[in-house]
């Protein structure tokens, strides 16, 4: 099987720190700082984090052909302990498992700096 894509040699022979990229980096940094400030005003900022992680899990799962809707995700998340676990919600459950793994990784990163006794 031949591929038409040729992997370029590293390091790339193009300038990555152009004026336009640095301007966009500044805009992104400013937006993240604003988001951080707004997140501090939320009584439980994990609500925002969980929403972002859930969206990322949904989008990443679509790459693996696991497609679900936002409605199904939130409904399944609220009914996760319910006995009525149906096959139609299998994709939503898979995305929720992905989110759970991501949350464990985030927690691990938060505590990884602690010295182990």
Structural write-up:
This protein is mainly α and 117 residues long. 62% of the residues lie in helices and 0% in strands. It has 4 helices and no strands. It has helices spanning 19-41, 46-63, 70-78, 90-111. Helix 2 (46-63) crosses helix 4 and helix 3 (70-78) packs across helix 4. The model has no long low-confidence stretch (mean pLDDT 78).
Summarize the structure.
The protein has helices at about 20-40, 45-65, 70-80, 90-110.
Number of helices: 4
Distance between the termini: 52 Å
Helix and strand run:
HHHH
How would you classify the helix and strand content by structural class? mainly alpha
Radius of gyration: 20 Å
Contiguous low-pLDDT stretches (5 residues minimum) are none
Number of beta-strand segments? 0
Helix content: 55-70%
Q: Mean of the pLDDT scores?
A: 78
| Shape, per Cα inertia axes | extended
Element layout with pairings:
Elements: H1 19-41, H2 46-63, H3 70-78, H4 90-111
Helix pairs in contact: 2-4, 3-4
Describe the structure using short key phrases.
117 residues; mainly alpha; 4 helices; 0% strand
